[in-house]
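Extended Data, panel c. Modelled sequence:
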Amino acid sequence: GDLVASAFKSKLEAFAPQFYGTEQQDSQELLSCLLDGVHEDLNRVKKKPYIEDKDCDGTNDEGDAVLAWQNYLQRDRSIIVDLFQGQLRNEIRCSECNHTSVKFDAFMYLSLPVSDTC
């Protein structure tokens, strides 16, 4: 009941001061904060190695994506990663020399536009 909710709110305020008080808060921000906190507490990687990003050009997307995900898992490995995270492919092309740079990034949240017709 109220006692459990009050205890949860007190712990949340200690962990994330932005939620202090009784002001209305963004539910996505709360969920993000909770998932990040649970991930950090359950992360099985205790010593995070430095891993340099590979410069990808889009000619080996499948192999580059697998390598990028393996590298990510060397630093972040939890049930939150297993259940809620994925990978995005980002491509940047220089308009002057036409050089293409591809990067694979892990994500936990995707913001999607919602139109009036949905």
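The chain has a mean pLDDT of 91. This feature is highlighted in the accompanying rendering.
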